[in-house]
Amino acid sequence: MEPLEVETVYFYPLENASRHHTDKCELIHSEPRIPVLRRGQSFSAAIRFVNRSYDHSVDQIKLVFSLGENANVIKRTKGAMFLLKENPKPDIYQWSAIITAEQEDDVVLEIESPCDTPVGSWNFSVETTIRGRPENVVKYEHEDDLYIIFNPWNKDDQVYMDDQSLLDEYVLNDVGKIWVGPMGSSKGREWVFGQFDETVLPACMLMLDRAELPYNQRGDPIKVTRIISKIVNSNDDQGVLVGRWDGDYEDGTAPAAWTGSAAILEQFLETQDEVSYGQCWVFAGVVTTVCRALGIPSRVVSNLVSAHDANSSLTVDKYYDANMEELNFDPNNPMGEDSIWNYHVWNDVWMARPDLPIGYGGWQAIDATPQEKSGGFYQCGPASLEAIKQGAVGYQHDVPFLLASVNADLMKWKEDNTQALGYSRIETNKYHIGRLILTKLPFIFDPNGDTDREDITDQYKAKEGTEAERLSLYNGIRGSERAKRFYAVPDESNEDVEFDLIELEKINIGEAFNVTVKISNKSDEERTVKAVLKAGSVFYTGIKSQLVKKAEGKFTMKPKSDENVNLRIAPDEYIPKLVEYCNMKIYAICTVLETNQTWAGEDDFQILKPTIEIQFNDDLEVGKQSIASLSFKNPLERVLTDCKFHVAGPGLVKRSLTIPHNDVAPHALLWADAPINPTSVGSMKLIVTFSSKELLDVTGSASIDVY
Known about the structure:
This protein is mainly beta and 707 residues long. The protein has four domains: 144 residues, Immunoglobulins (Immunoglobulin-like, Sandwich); 320 residues, Coagulation Factor XIII, Chain A, domain 2 (Alpha-Beta Complex); 115 residues, Immunoglobulin-like, CATH 2.60.40.10; 94 residues, Sandwich (Immunoglobulin-like), CATH 2.60.40. It contains 13 helices and 38 strands. Strands 2, 4, 5, 8, 9 and 10 form a six-stranded mixed β-sheet that branches. Strands 19-18-17-15-22-23 form a six-stranded antiparallel β-sheet, with helices on both faces.
């Protein structure tokens, strides 16, 4: 008798996808249908033989799953098992396969992968022999690979989330929001994650290969997410996105023009080259897409007023010369200088942390924006949120950097040759950094407001000013020799005049605004105050662009008196100097001449642009083409050129759509029609951005039911 010959293997892709929560993956519905399976969970398959029926007493069937070159059972990149008729004692760390039915020339199987299987594109083969004749082997190679990914529904998986309902948001939701903009005018920007697009999983495999992550380590979410933070930026390894923040994007796509991740990953996959351009929120959007596609629960996190601590001091330091002019370098860190971003966006990923003490699992922060090197590469995390909150800087990975991002003190230093550092500390602000940390609230989507935002500041740090918050920061300081030196310098205490810079929140483009400082003389003597007020445009990273206006003067205050000093900025003074996202910074520097008391304050705010209005011309039905009308008014006194609308929405538009528009005159209305082709029933979301050479980051979104 000759061994069985396999004609075909069928993996029931649709049926298995329903059980494995992968039924939205386009690969399941394409031709050929590619199975997408979650590890540690059984799935069905059927083998059809071409020469005769299966006889358990005669035939021996071996199933082999392999990942990558030189697959190895010991390294867990190869799973080899003999087909059994009875269920053996379950072992969650071993492959198993049993026969559940026999039908003429077919056998139906139930196969289960280990709960720690490396994720990836697995090859499958079948080896058949006659019992007692192991030398005569017939091998069948399955033509198509299958994907095995993480399984947060399985309690034995390291990424298991005990509140299973949250997985609808953190794994399955393919449209979300990313909060961008400075404190006071931050808004949720819609983003199409698109993790089920047919190009995303192949792009994820290219990313892991490009990062040279060994196959046997691809089952460890700690290593996988750290590599994701490294490979989504292109700084070290021809990763996905090139970061750029200077406003010059003519040789690529402006970050503000992207509507989602799928178009970025599709371009990366097709060209095998890095994509231009990204910024922090674009990096974070792609990270969440990749994590959710691989089965790792993920959310996007926005930190309003975010510190970039360049020298591990757990402070953000600003230096002034003897005349109180701000220095444009850090005299104590020749490698770089600290900065404060209006906002910064990164990601949280969910997992157990067996490498850390009990209590440090759950949400972990990772950051793909290339800021500082970690372990020799531009990567960051995963850092336990609990470790950040407790100031446990000794725990992996990059806890000190994330702690400083959300809870550093802002210290201002003035040149002073009498001090060992060469500078004396004139002010410490304990409340400025990490003012608000936001993510999207599960299960809610508000296309016209912010009712879907969730404040998670308390997950990163205790309430500002409380003893618990100070203790966690001081705990971090004790773990850093450099931080100890900075915090040991006392503040100057000879202060009897109080200053308060009035913060601005929302200014509509075309409106004037004031820089205002309230000054109170608390002493019983006259005080002479020298004041400098300034306003300038800045990039959201805190890098200055252009000075808009500056005024300075000197005046005398009577004892126990109050004064307001103002600087008015007209629209025609600031509009020509705006940079992308229209962020502005106001500064105030004051010195009391009698006591040499010095104070410096600053605030960031955003000039607000119009929102794209979206109107659907008809009720939407599956399979029936329709039109969405897009419009807004040019708010500028200049012509808009190279105009484009960018449209995306799963179930409404295939990936993304770009609609060119003619040049637009100052203050003119512009509009366009976007073709809509509904493919799914339910509540759908359409996301639109507008870009031109003169105006970026105009957005809009709408929700609509498809019947």
